[in-house]
Amino acid sequence: MKTSLLGDLLLWKDLSVLPFVEDDLFRPSQPTEGYLKSHLLSAISNLDAQISVPLLSRALKLPEADARVGAARFLAYTKSETALDSLLSALDDPDRSVQFAVMQSLGNLTEQHYWRPHTDTAESDPFWTACIVHWREFGAQRNGNMPRSDKRCSETSRNH
After folding, report:
1. Which DSSP letter does residue 119 get?
2. Could you give the angle at which helices 34-45 and 49-59 cross, rounded to 10 degrees?
3. Distance CA 78, CA 132 (A)
């Protein structure tokens, strides 16, 4: 009940509840069900990006996979380029559902909709590996680890 109320207050942009929200999300002594964490993360995504992106990025490291999926999904809702680095670092999450949500959000934020896998399992989506490679190259280029003149990503996207 408390967590649901906190989420509702955040939806009304009541920032006075942020310390309680952070406790519910991040303190191990405050166990909160995954679906309730997802409600809080959704509410956080409606806040200003300077507040929402750091909190959602931190939530990408929570132990519950469903909370990490929510964090990845809701980072796209912020419509903030500052979310890209956190999403790119979560590409290697051990949970395929999280990786799927990360790639969906990366595609939405960058308007590279083509580079979103079709399903959340690599086994049933042969395009999965190509998407992972694309986003890793995108991240390397974004971080200056790949020269801008390297056109492998754009050539690959034209060939598909």
Report:
1. S
2. 150
3. 22
Residue among 73, 78, 22 at smallest CA distance from 46:
78
Residue pair 60/86 in contact (Cβ under 8 Å)? The answer is yes
Where residue 66 falls (left for φ over 0; alpha for ψ -120 to 50; beta otherwise) is: alpha
Q: Which residue positions in the chain have pLDDT lower than 70?
A: 30, 121-124, 146-160
Interior CA angle at 66 toward 64 and 68, to 5°?
75
Give the C-alpha separation, 87 to 85, whole Å: 5
Quote the CA–CA distance of 58 and 12 in Å, as a whole number.
22
User: CB of 140 within 8 A of CB of 91?
Assistant: no
Q: And the tokens for 77? A: 């809702």
pTM: 0.85
- Give me the amino acid identity at 88: L
Distance in angstroms (rounded) separating the CA atoms of residues 75 and 44: 9
Residues 6+ apart with CB under 8 A from 59: 25, 26, 37, 41, 67, 68, 70, 71
Q: Report the alpha-carbon distance of residue 13 to residue 31 in Å, rounded.
A: 24
Distance CA 44, CA 55 (A): 8
Q: Which two tokens stand for residue 128?
A: 């999965």
